[in-house]
Amino acid sequence: MVMLDYYFQLGLRSLRRNPMLTALMVMAIGFGVAASMTTYSVFRAVSGNPIPDKSARLFIPLVDNWGPQQNLKGEPADGLDYVDAIALMRAHAAKRQTMLYPVQLAVMPDANRDLPMNAEGYAVGGDFFPMFDVPFRFGSGWTTQDDERRAADVVISGKLNQEVFAGANSVGRTINLGGRDYRVVGVTNHWNPRPRFYDLFSTSGFADEPDFYMPFNLALQQQMYTGGRNSCRGHLGFTNWTDYTQSNCVWITPWVELDTADEVANYRRFLTNYAADQQRAGRFNWAPNVRLRDVTQWLDYQQVVPPESRISLVVALGFFVICLVNTIGLLLAKFMRRAGEIGVRRALGATRGEIYTQYLIEAGTVGLAGGALGLLLTALGVSGIGVLFQPEVAKLAKLDLSLMALTFAVAIAATVLAAFYPAWRAAHVQPAWQLKSS
After folding, report:
1. Which of 128, 208, 272, 432 holds its CA 20 to 30 A away from the CA of 314?
2. How far apart are CA 174 and CA 188, in angstroms?
3. What pLDDT was estimated at residue 26?
């Protein structure tokens, strides 16, 4: 430990002896690591597994209701129409299942507010909350019986609860949405998985946290049109709810929970048999075309990670490599200028291992200084990342403790690795040659 401290002090003295060379190395490491960490902060945010504990057990089942002439290059649409969604829901071929679609309602004024407030939420089944491990601050979701009797229940977000009920336990109280009263049965903690895997049909996956969740059957009973995307084929001349629900317009996203490989195989057979039944009934005039993807497969298929995040990360890493190559050259020049000093130390008994240790520690001090500069530049880069990315993606980039630690770790580790060849050259200086030339 004493020797390591001594080598560290030697390294600091050496850095002060050549301030210009030291500054060039620190800047090379700082800019390189900052570019990498800034782009990595975005890539990390958009490419993570949003529900790692259950991603292999949650599946989105899809049925092709458009046929080979109108589907997406042989792929079914990214959601279901009303007819197929209701059929799958009533069949209940999975342990847990939910149908969902986005709805938009106004939170009507009360004693605390004079104006209505826009709120965005989802119509979901009661299984939605245990399937996706939604955390609750107060209360819980509604029951299957509440689903069936179309209870006027609602689960609200902690943010909406703060705005309407000042953050108090609002379970059992009433909130007016769109001119109708709903009973609050639960208040969620902040929950907004990124990407929002459960609704990639109507969102890019990076929208703000929903304000509320209401029963799916109740929303249908009240003829609430989707607040998200519609995707239709053919004749679109419907003028009322009945025509809309009987059309081939896709607007509902289904999810099921399947725990074992046998359950997955059985559900895939169920989907195929269902599509075959629709063909026999004359609704489809094409062979069954179904898909059953888990969360990670669905994210890959939807290409959720923005291509610019991958490209910018690769470019930034390439820039970092160039900076490291330059650092290798600067360290080599710096170390070999002290060949005479190294020769004397070797002649006095210093081992090659000790020379290695001294110069690697010296390189580590350069990395530490480069990390400090890189951290400052990363903070600036994260604050301005919106220049390269869409706002909803850019705001995901955060300079948290883990990124700060990673910035220092990468800077130090990369500089030490870059120093191995210069240190090897320094350790193999021949003492006799240096002493003769002196």
Report:
1. 208
2. 16
3. 87
Eight-state DSSP code of residue 419: T
What's the pLDDT tens digit per position in 316-340? Answer: 888 888 988 888 888 887 776 665 5
Supply angle C-alpha 76, 94, 189, rounded to 5. Answer: 90
Would you state the pLDDT for residue 208?
87
CA angle 88, 92, 95 (to 5 degrees): 130
For residues 196 and 202, the answer to whether their CB atoms sit within 8 Å is no
Question: Tokens 């069936």 identify what position?
Answer: 148
What is the DSSP secondary structure assignment for residue 37, as one 8-state letter?
A: H
pTM above 0.85, yes or no: no
pLDDT value of position 149 = 87
CA nearest neighbour of 98 among 269, 257, 249, 298: 257
* Residue 234 DSSP one-character state: S
Angle between helices 401-418 and 19-47 (to 10 degrees): 130
The string of DSSP letters for 311-327 reads: HHHHHHHHHHHHHHHHH
Is the Cβ–Cβ distance between 57 and 258 less than 8 Å? Answer: yes
> Measured between alpha carbons, how far is 218 from 291 in angstroms, rounded to an integer?
28
Which string of DSSP letters, residue by residue, matches 248-292? --B-BEEEEE--SHHHHHHHHHHHHHHHHHHHHTTS--S---EEE
For 72-125, the DSSP string reads BTTBPPSSB-HHHHHHHHHH--SSEEEEEEEEEEEE--BTTBSS-EEEEEEEE-
Q: Between vectors from CA 335 to CA 355 and to CA 12, what angle results, nearest 5°?
A: 80
Distance of CA 96 to the CA centre of its chain: 25
Assign 392 to helix, strand or coil.
Answer: helix
CA distances to 82, 92, 199, 268, 283 from 252, in Å: 7, 16, 9, 19, 19
Mean pLDDT by 10 residues, the chain (438 residues): 63 69 86 89 82 95 93 91 96 95 89 78 96 96 86 95 92 93 96 92 88 96 93 80 91 97 97 96 94 95 81 86 87 70 61 73 84 90 75 75 89 87 71 50
Strand 253-257 relative to strand 212-215, pairing = unpaired
Spatial contact of 369 and 407, defined as CB atoms under 8 Å apart: no
3-state secondary structure of 182: strand
